[in-house]
Every structure is written in C-alpha cells, then in structure tokens.
Amino acid sequence: MCLIAFLWRPGSPEPLRLAANRDEFHARPTAPLSWWEGGRILAGRDLQAGGTWLGLSRDGRLAALTNFRSPAPRPEDAPSRGTLPAAFLAERQSARAFVEDLRPTASAYAPFNLLLFDGEALVGYESRHDRAVAFDPGLHVVSNGDFDEPWPKAEALRAALTEGFPSDAELLRILADERRSSDAELPRTGVPLEIERALSPIFVRTPTYGTRVSTLVRVGRSSADVLEQGYEPIETARRTEIAFDF
After folding, report:
1. Among residues 201, 202, 211, which one has the least CA distance to residue 233?
2. Measured on CA atoms in the order 41, 42, 46, 48, is the torsion positive or negative?
3. Where are the alpha helices (DSSP H) in the chain?
4. Please, what is the end-to-end C-alpha distance for the chain in angstroms?
5. Residue 132 region, left (φ>0) first, then alpha (ψ -120 to 50), else beta?
6. Which of 42, 2, 43, 45 is nearest to 20 (CA)?
7. What pTM value is reported for the model?
8. What is the dihedral of CA 102, 103, 109, 114, to 10 degrees?
9. In whole angstroms, how far apart are CA 113 and each of 11, 163, 233?
C-alpha cells in the first residue's frame, strides 16, 4: 500500500473513512479482498509472503501499511511487513499496546508506516523513527514518507479531499489520477530521477510495477463496508464490495 488518505472523526457515528492505492510489482501474486480462514480477517492477501497491506477484523478493527521508500537494501532475512497488519487484526490488543510490543523488533523489518484502529483509538507508527503518532481529528495522508509529509502525490490527494470524502465513484476517479509531478516538486529519496517521476502520480503505471487496487473503507460504530477495485492488466477490472455488522 503506497498512498492512504484517511478522515478521522472520533466520537462521530462514522469515526473513520479511508481511501488508498496499493502499488506493487505486477509479478507478485495476490488474492483479492475476502474473508480469510476462520472468518476474522477481511483483506486482500499477498500470496508470496502471506500477509496483507490493508484489512479489517470482524469486530471493526483496521490496519494498513505503507513502505518507506529507500534505495538501501532490505535487511537480510527480514520478515514480511505485511504480517504486521494481519497480526494486529488477528488479536484484540489495543493499537497502543500493539505498537509498544512491536517496538523492540521493528528494526528487523524493512522500514514501514503502520496505521492501526482498534475501535476507539487511531495510532500510527513510523518504524525508522521508532515513533508513535497520534492524529488530530481531520484529514491525513501518508505515502512512502512520514505521516502527513507533503509529498506531491499526497498533497494532490489531500487537495482533492478538502471538501470531504465524495461518492465512491468520485473517489475512485481521484485515485486513478495519473498526472506526474514536475521535477521541482519531487521528493529526493535516493532512487534515480526516472523512478521518482514514474512513482509521482496518485495512480502509478509502469510495465512492471504500478497501482494494483484501490480500496475504500467506511468504519461506523457497529458496521463497516469495504470496496476494492482491481485494475488491468494484473487484477482485471473486478470490483469487490463487502459490508458487515459487528
């Protein structure tokens, strides 16, 4: 998952809304959104390592992950970051307790951002800083830098959502924006300039890597619904919509 916008409204009938794009290599096998074995976790599934980038639990918890962009090699024998959202959703720990338990081993993973909602609290964790993030009510965006870091694609998505979250059809249109940023706007993350250019749109499209799915989530006090839109050529243009009560 490489771009997430979320509207945090604690105390409201619908405390959390989220819109996200997952960018991944086309060759990495993936299962679409569905209930996993046991019926507790609703998520897409990375069939290579077994984890997920975004999911919900049967009792309305949510977890989402973005990677931190860096040219540094991944640590040898590093566990898959996708196992972290799955682990949170499989448990009933609070978001804060999960982060505290994760901290001693977080450096074993390649750098990541983790967003956790436990039904009450919304907590972010930036592994490279070993920093837990508390969010004020309102709109927040994260890509492959820090939470609310003003990357061009993150700011473009934020600007499109300043009036609130629109209809699902309009959200999907926004998430499909392929306009590239100018070179002057690009972040400097250590990867070659041509790669920075290719990764700069909200929706990424290259021959080997790109936006595989868009996901829209609403979490209320006693119900949630999820829409996952797949894209050609890998996922096909399928759409999965699942609503459930808890």
Report:
1. 211
2. positive
3. 83-90, 95-102, 152-160, 168-175, 193-199
4. 26
5. beta
6. 2
7. 0.95
8. 70
9. 25, 26, 28
Among 79, 122, 125, which residue's Cα sits nearest to residue 101? 125
DSSP 61-105: -EEEEEEPP-SSPPPTTPPPTTHHHHHHHHS---HHHHHHHHGGG
Average pLDDT value for residue range 94-112: 97
- DSSP class of residue 118 equals -
- Count Cβ neighbours within 10 Å for each residue of 84-96 and write b for 16 or more, e otherwise: bbbebbbeebbbb
Q: Which two tokens stand for residue 134?
A: 């508390």
Distance CA 211, CA 233 (A): 10
- For the stretch 91-99, contacts whose Cβ atoms lie closer than 8 Å and that sit 24 or more positions apart, written own/partner, are 92/59, 93/118, 94/118, 94/120, 94/121, 95/121, 95/122, 95/123, 96/121, 96/123, 96/132, 99/123, 99/125, 99/132
Q: Are 54 and 108 in contact (CB under 8 A)?
A: no
Q: Tell me the pLDDT tens digit for each residue of 137-178.
A: 999 999 999 999 999 999 999 999 999 999 999 999 999 999
